[in-house]
Amino acid sequence: MTTYVWDYLPEYEKERADLLDAVQQVFSSGQLVLGESVRGFEAEFAGYHGLRHATGVDNGTNALKLALQALGVGPGDEVVTVSNTAAPTVLAIDGTGATPVFVDVREEDFLMDVSQVEAALTPRTKALLPVHLYGQCVDMAPLAELARRHGLKVLEDCAQSHGARHHGRLAGTLGDAAAFSFYPTKVLGAYGDGGAVVTDDEAVDQALRRLRYYGMEKTYYVVQTPGHNSRLDEVQAEILRRKLTRLDEYTAGRRAVAARYQEALGDLPDLRLPTVNDGNEHVYYVYVVRHPRRDEIIERLKPYGISLNISYPWPVHTMTGFEHLGYRAGSLPVTERLAGEIFSLPMYPSLPVETQDKVVSALREVLATL
Ligand SMILES: *Cc1c(COP(=O)(O)O)cnc(C)c1O
């Protein structure tokens, strides 16, 4: 059996009765769209964050796009973000008609280099979109200060950081709004697609609710401004309610896996393990390591039945579909260098210890014979 970086089946085995009960509850509720489960999940997800509003949507990409639109971002605007991220971060900006502007990431943690943001601002800049990549938060204080000084909105991309903390505060509570994905691999994952936006701003939340529902005020069935059909599915919402009560348990499981890697691999000179910044509580959505001979390592692990992947092999600014943005090879040197050296080790809360041991010993063997 091949070992992959992620597998939901061990979790499903363990939680099957509860998950199937969730499906059964929705199917017999008499309301399949925007019913009790979506309303309940929204209240509980907002409550988890200590915020007043959460709006469920169909996926993380649309959570980002609708949140940007609700914050007033549109054609002609610029949004500053990073290229070392999942392409959807950038697709969401593009989808509003605004232009993505990239700053580089930091060598030590692969996160947005906040010190480069001010130089990237223009009169068109409308919002900053930090990505709490891999499960730990961007340095938010200087970003918030910049936003305040220049009148910019801050949208957090929390698709990889459910439950992460930054100086004691939860990811998702550090800007004007935050977008989450519940894609199955995520720290809080559905059994299909899902997403949400959290905010404390009533007007932003009202705009989001219209945008996900064709642009209509639900009671009047009149389009106010053309929107989308981006509703969170009722079944996924009920599954997410159940899983939200276990989020802190999942995170504890991920941290235990990370601690075992640190213990078992921390002595290897050329393998760089993840570091946690001061003030951050990491949730390890993925466990990203770095080695100059990454491609050979991945190749040599295959005969052991270990199939690893890379988050992300192609920086977004180098993708064919974003050529029109005008970035050239060399524009974002740290991002480009990292893309050739990083790879992910298996990481999920229910990762069996024997599987992790197998990965550790195979990796040690491969590294010893490089
Ligand atoms: C997963 C992810 C998204 C997109 O979420 P989907 O639910 O797949 O649309 C956006 N940004 C980041 C950083 C992600 O990891």
UniProtKB/TrEMBL annotation:
<dbReference type="GO" id="GO:0008483">
    <property type="term" value="F:transaminase activity"/>
</dbReference>
<dbReference type="InterPro" id="IPR000653">
    <property type="entry name" value="DegT/StrS_aminotransferase"/>
</dbReference>
<dbReference type="InterPro" id="IPR015421">
    <property type="entry name" value="PyrdxlP-dep_Trfase_major"/>
</dbReference>
<dbReference type="Pfam" id="PF01041">
    <property type="entry name" value="DegT_DnrJ_EryC1"/>
</dbReference>
<keyword id="KW-0808">Transferase</keyword>
<comment type="similarity">
    <text>Belongs to the DegT/DnrJ/EryC1 family.</text>
</comment>
<dbReference type="InterPro" id="IPR015422">
    <property type="entry name" value="PyrdxlP-dep_Trfase_small"/>
</dbReference>
<keyword id="KW-0663">Pyridoxal phosphate</keyword>
<protein>
    <submittedName>
        <fullName>DegT/DnrJ/EryC1/StrS family aminotransferase</fullName>
    </submittedName>
</protein>
<dbReference type="InterPro" id="IPR015424">
    <property type="entry name" value="PyrdxlP-dep_Trfase"/>
</dbReference>
<keyword id="KW-0032">Aminotransferase</keyword>
